[in-house]
Amino acid sequence: MLEISDLTARVAGKEILNGVNLTVKAGEVHAIMGPNGSGKSTLAQVLAGREDYEVTRGSATFEGHDLLAMRAEERARAGLFLGFQYPVEIPGVNNVYLLKAALNAKRKAAGEPEVDAYDFLALIRQKMKFMQMSETFLTRGVNEGFSGGEKKRNEVLQMLVLEPKLAILDETDSGLDIDALKVVSQGVNSLRDPARAVVLVTHYQRLLDYVIPDYVHVLSGGRIVKSGDKSLAQELERRGYDWVMGAQVA
Amino acid sequence: MSAALRSFETQWRARTPDALQPIREQAMQRFLKLGLPSLRDETWRYTDLRGLAAQTYGEAGCAANADAVANASVTASASAGTGTGATSGKELLSLVHAGQQAATLTMINGCPILNADLPIINGIEINSIRELYKQDSNRVRRFFEAASDADQRRWVLLNTALFIDGLYLKITRAVARPIVIRHVSTGDSAQAAHPRVIIDASPGASATIIEHHLSEGDAAPLSNSNTHIALGKDAQLEHYRVYATGAGATHLDALDIHQAEGSQCRQFTIALGGGLVRSSLEARLNQRGASLDSYSLLAGHQDRHVDCVNIVTHAAPDTRSRQTARAIAGDVSRVIFNSKVIVNAGANGADSKQSCRGLLLSPNAEIDTRPQLEIHADEVKCAHGATTGRLDPDMLFYLLSRGLDRETAQSLLVFAFLADVLTDMSVSSARAAIESALISQLPDAQILRKFR
After folding, report:
1. Per-residue pLDDT of chain A in tens (250 residues, 90 and over written 9)
2. Distances (CA, A) of A245 to A126, A170, A229
3. How many domains does one find in chain B?
4. Alpha-carbon gap, residue B379 to B124, rounded angstroms
5. What is A2-249's CATH number?
6. Does A98 touch chain B (CB under 8 A)?
7. Which residue of A91, A153, B324, B389 sits 20 to 30 Å from the alpha carbon of B415, by its own alpha carbon?
8. Which of residues 377-396 of B touch A (CB under 8 A)?
């Protein structure tokens, strides 16, 4: 589904990604871990199409298409979803308008008719209930005045409505209390499907107790320096990132 | 002496004196002595009036058959498709009427239409300023201050000297029905009109008044308008001034607000039309507990020039003011917003905030903002902030990453930027009309309409 090869990218003249290789197949859940500043968020943003980053080398394909040649909105419509680490507040743009516009943009790209207003509201209510979100969400601006936890729930809600083929979740677990973490994990797990894939970018192993990954990768210095199964995450938790980075030097 | 000044002097000499003559005489002599404001004057440094000064102006005058003109101008506005001012005017008109059954008063080139069709509104007395002055000058005299040298008041002097007549509205109790004053400009750009309105609210009275400035076509007489608002103890007013004249129109508008104890004023200044718009607001919070919320929504479009000057004086303790300005500038337009808060000595407990944000939509547009504070008291709370920039890239990327196309995302963000002002309007029909007129001036208007 996602094939990244030797991906190198920089922002403001500084190399952040330095030859990333990663293959994600349909049905898989991958976790990308790593210390602060290792390039995790940059990788997520580059894959989603943020223009501030300049890709200087390498390639990325999504279902056989050249991802890097697509604009951010085209990637989204093709089924790629980025859950933001810091979802931005957009007062004046209503949550529901955005969701509806997003869903319709995707449907239009797939040659499907626009969603019926009544059906859409029923869908939103059902997903909101699943994510244990308050009804006031419907009338508010995008993420406006939301707590950190509410913003993350909203990211997962959007993901559930849009049903992406590939979800990249950037530190969706950070800033969540244990109850919220369970709800968010439940949301992610509900999307697991042989036809979809999930990439979890996370700093801590905590989330991986609830969303069990098939593969764990450690990103350091803009490259994947170690890959393994879920036990790698547990070992990292026990021994710290210094262990991997020390091994890398040695 | 500039050509414009000479022509105003000629008009002055040709006038038949009326009961207001001593007041007018003083104002005109002051105006002639000071001359037109120039870039050297503090509040005029962003607006070059040399083009205006080089022209000559005749009196726009009242239309021979004012009723016919009033009706004709509605038709003209409704059918004009090209002039943005005319288009927005039409939308505002129809929506205010259909939605909330507003009472409408009309002034043509500054001449109030006071005939038998005048709406009867409980709690409002409607008069001609000249008539009232003739009958009982004491009721109106206080609204004509002594001639001032302040450069922002230069054109008010000329208005005082040359206004043909004006509307005097006395609000005596709570009036629920919004009142719309339509200021219609008709004629050509070699003429000048001086509309004058006085809104006098008795203690405890309340009202909503919408002044709507529109022109018959793109070209219109120079309009030099003045509105004076006086709020008695605990009076409440929501006041709108909406500029929606044609793209060739020049409009100089001055608004004075004087507030007594505990009075509350919410004021919306909406610039949607005109070629050159100069809009000033001078508010005086004269007694304890007076409160002013001023909102400015300034839309720079095509080659429009909008220069907005606010001066708010806290002249008594425990007074409160809020100024919220949102400016957008597209194409080659220029928008200026200067605000100043003055806290007089002894006005302890004054509480003021100025928030001004500008959004540039084109590399060739310009926005200038300058919030200022002048504080002569010790115990005050004064905050100000001003930012101007382009669309927030984080917000834009967020919307794109959800699959919205770029045009839709940009339009949504521009509109969201203006929401702070729009959401606080309590006349929903006026709000809807202003939104609609505003959308028509944004890029990708069609897309945006789907979201409203």
Report:
1. 999 999 999 988 888 999 999 999 999 999 999 888 889 999 999 999 998 899 999 999 999 999 999 999 999 999 999 999 999 999 888 888 899 999 999 999 999 999 888 899 899 999 999 998 888 888 888 999 888 888 999 999 999 999 999 999 999 888 888 888 998 899 999 999 999 999 999 988 888 989 999 999 999 889 998 899 988 888 888 888 888 776 554 4
2. 45, 22, 18
3. 2
4. 39
5. 3.40.50.300
6. yes
7. A153
8. 392-395
Q: Is residue B146 part of a domain?
A: yes
Distance CA A115, CA A82 (A): 22
Nearest CA in chain B to A44: B401
Query: Residue B367: inside a domain, yes or no?
Result: no
User: What is the model's pTM?
Assistant: 0.82
Q: B211 lies in a domain?
A: yes
Q: Specify the residue for token string 């070699």.
A: B190
With beta carbons under 8 A apart, name residues in chain A contacting B419: 91-92, 141
Cβ contacts of B404 on chain A, cutoff 8 Å: 73, 98, 101-102, 105
Give A-chain residues touching B420 at CB under 8 angstroms: 91-92
The residue out of B242, B259, B287 marking a domain boundary is B287
**Residue A168, H or E segment:** strand A166-170
Chain B residues in contact with A158 by the CB 8 A cut-off are 402
Where is A215: in which H helix or E strand? Answer: strand A215-220
Q: Structural domain boundaries of chain A?
A: 2-249
Domain that holds residue B408: 391-452
B256 belongs to a structural domain? yes
